[in-house]
Specification:
The protein has about 260 residues and is of the alpha/beta class. The protein is built from ten helices and seven strands. Helix 5 crosses helix 6.
């Protein structure tokens, strides 16, 4: 998922680029933003990437702290793709999906999520957030199917010449920097994130072409936006409060625009 905070501090009427003051991306939304910036490098002055997807999520799943060699992860990715496409996706057309939908929307599930939140020390409303997330995932068969298809589609099939899997933040020896022309970037990860490991976020931080900070929430998973919404909101406001680089110059055609 991802969202955009519009602002009047940095926009003009040009049609070549889309301008926003700050762009927020969570998980695969962060990957979509970085991909978009390859064609629209001036899309935003600031970036906030939460649990950013590396672009090869099926290859890097269940590796929260350390990366396995690509000679192993390529089989992990193939196995995950097989399970999603050939095993899980066909179940959407059966009564299994109806059962999962009923369970996700049940009072038992809500109580279980609230109990787990209390036991883990998360805010009391976190259980309700997770319940709403499950309700959205199983709102209809098309929604569930679309989410699975998107996960598979965002696992880039491209490989590098060195035999390493491509994608943002996968290899520490990237050929080009990420993040377009954004001036400031904040990357936030959860220590127990088994979907997008923090080591990818660290590599992503190193490869950003402008100022970038990486923050790790020790008591958070891939769903830190649901687990610690108030802390994430504070980080968003902190990023928005940071001063712009007054020497930033955008060049388009024969004209140069300095942002004051």
């Amino acid at each position: 998922g991802g969202g955009m905070f519009k602002g009047s501090a940095w926009r003009d009427g040009g049609r070549d680029y889309i301008h926003f003051e700050c762009v927020l991306g969570w998980s695969m939304g962060a990957q979509c933003i970085l991909t978009c910036m390859e064609k629209h490098p001036f899309i935003s002055k600031k970036l906030l990437l939460l649990n950013p997807s590396s672009g090869r999520s099926l290859h890097t799943v269940f590796q929260p702290l350390l990366a396995l060699p690509y000679s192993i992860t390529k089989y992990v990715g193939a196995l995950m793709r097989h399970l999603i496409v050939d095993r899980v996706r066909p179940l959407i057309r059966t009564t299994v999906w109806d059962t999962l939908k009923a369970i996700s929307d049940s009072m038992v599930m809500r109580v279980l999520l609230e109990w787990m939140s209390f036991w883990a020390g998360f805010p009391p409303e976190q259980g309700a957030y997770f319940h709403a997330y499950l309700f959205d995932v199983f709102s209809c068969r098309q929604q569930t199917r679309g989410l699975l298809d998107l996960i598979v589609a965002l696992d880039s099939p491209l490989e590098s010449e060195e035999g390493l899997s491509g994608g943002y933040g996968y290899s520490g020896e990237q050929r080009k920097a990420f993040g377009g022309k954004s001036e400031q970037t904040s990357v936030i990860s959860g220590l127990t994130d088994f979907m997008t490991g923090i080591y990818h976020a660290r590599i992503l931080e190193e490869n950003m072409n402008k100022r970038c900070t990486h923050k790790v929430y020790t008591m958070a998973s891939h769903f830190l936006l649901l687990e610690w919404p108030e802390l994430v909101s504070k980080d968003i406001l902190d990023l928005l409060d940071k001063a712009y680089d007054r020497n930033f110059v955008r060049v388009r055609g024969n004209s140069a625009l300095g942002i004051k």
